[in-house]
Write a structure and sequence with these properties.
The protein contains 8 helices and 4 strands; from the N terminus they run H-H-H-H-H-H-E-H-E-E-E-H. Helix 1 (3-25) packs across helix 6. With 186 residues, it is α+β, with helices and mostly antiparallel strands. The chain has a 4-stranded mixed sheet with strand order 2-1-3-4, with helices on both faces. The protein has helices at residues 3-25, 29-45, 47-54, 60-73, 78-89, 96-111, 126-140, 171-185, and strands at 113-120, 143-150, 158-162, 165-168.
Length: 186
């Protein structure tokens, strides 16, 4: 991990810990989860929003005003809105994606849940998703939430990441390992 990435993650985890503690104390964890969904949507869908949080051309005041307006428009909880305003005043908005991820992990851990990132060659059916979640629950002992993405380049199979563990059963990886074995022989 690069030094910059680890600094960003450290900053995000401190903010996430503070937000989660405040939300839990005020019994507003559900509101924070709703806020995270809204922020994730904004990060994924709005290039202007991504530019606002990453671009150094905006002053602290401009970022603060924009974040306040967006917080009202997105109907974010006071805890999240105030945290984003504080982050804007400290020029820390660039860690927002890591903050969202860290908060989701803290909430899931407290609920006894774990998120599995699943990449498949084709979209999984409901039955396949349920079966995978059930087998992962048996393995981890925790409730599993699947976060699925589709990548045609896998050709077939799955890549499943749960925490620090990764299982790659894709045809692409099998072909790559076969290719490596063939290079060693020849």
């Amino acid at each position: 991990m690069s030094e910059t990435a680890s600094i960003s993650t450290g900053i995000a985890q401190r903010y996430a810990s503070a937000v989660y503690d405040l939300a839990k104390e005020g019994k507003k964890v559900k509101a924070i989860e709703t806020d995270l969904d809204a922020l994730t949507g904004a990060l994924n869908d709005s290039e202007d929003f991504r530019n606002l949080i990453h671009s150094p051309i905006y002053t602290r005041d401009e970022q603060g005003a924009a974040i306040s307006a967006l917080s009202k428009k997105m109907k974010l909880s006071p805890v999240m809105g105030n945290t984003l305003a504080l982050m804007a005043s400290k020029r820390r908005l660039f860690v927002l994606p890591q903050l969202v991820k860290s908060l989701r992990e803290a909430i899931a851990e407290d609920k006894g849940e774990v998120t599995a990132e699943v990449t498949s060659a084709k979209a999984l059916t409901k039955a396949q998703s349920d079966s995978l979640a059930k087998s992962l629950k048996a393995t981890t002992g925790k409730t599993v939430t699947l976060q699925t993405t589709v990548d045609d380049s896998l050709i077939g199979g799955l890549i499943v990441k749960v925490g620090s563990k990764m299982i790659d059963t894709s045809i692409r990886s099998k072909l790559n390992s076969l290719q490596n074995v063939m290079k060693e022989v020849g």
